[in-house]
Design goal:
Elements lengths: L1 E2 L7 E5 L4 E8 L19 E5 H5 L1 H6 L7 E6 L2 H9 L4 E5 L11 E5 L5 E2 L1 E6 L6 H15 L2
Parallel strand pairs: 4-5, 4-6
Antiparallel strand pairs: 1-9, 2-9, 3-6, 3-7, 3-8
């Protein structure tokens, strides 16, 4: 799966329904955890844990000219690793919702960005790929379900 900002031209792809919501994952005891949502100015002086991919396009566009003023404490490729850093208090993690445990028993919480930022996801596969019979049936089922409104 890839996020919409990636170059899809070299793959066959299928859009997945819905979109993921960007936000901030931070410790529940962090002073900013009382905020309902975060605007770009709210995050300028905060140590941030950012995804390597998302920072290049989606988040840079959301922060606009303020992106150069961000205090990036760490970057991550896997949300789990970013969540560990946030849980240990290294900073606030920019991420999609529901990638890290923010349930009632977790020391972490999720707050959305405002204005909202959403990203569509795509299932991709190599052009001219040869599939097993099971994978072919699975792909056809996905394609037919995405074609119906």
């Amino acid at each position: 799966m890839l996020v919409e900002s990636n170059d899809l031209s070299k793959y066959n792809h299928l859009p997945l329904p819905g979109a993921d919501t960007w936000g901030v994952i931070l410790r529940r005891d962090h002073p900013l955890a009382q905020k309902e949502a975060f605007a770009p100015d709210d995050l300028l002086d905060v140590p941030l844990i950012c995804p390597r991919q998302g920072l290049q396009k989606e988040l840079s566009h959301w922060f606009r000219e303020k992106v150069d003023r961000l205090n990036i404490a760490a970057t991550y490729n896997l949300a789990y690793n970013g969540g560990v850093l946030a849980r240990e208090g290294l900073g606030c993690m920019l991420s999609f919702d529901k990638l890290v445990d923010t349930g009632a028993d977790s020391p972490l919480c999720f707050r959305p960005l405002t204005p909202p930022l959403h990203s569509k996801l795509f299932l991709i596969w190599k052009k001219y790929a040869v599939f097993s019979p099971a994978a072919e049936i699975f792909l056809k089922a996905l394609q037919s379900s995405s074609a119906t409104p």
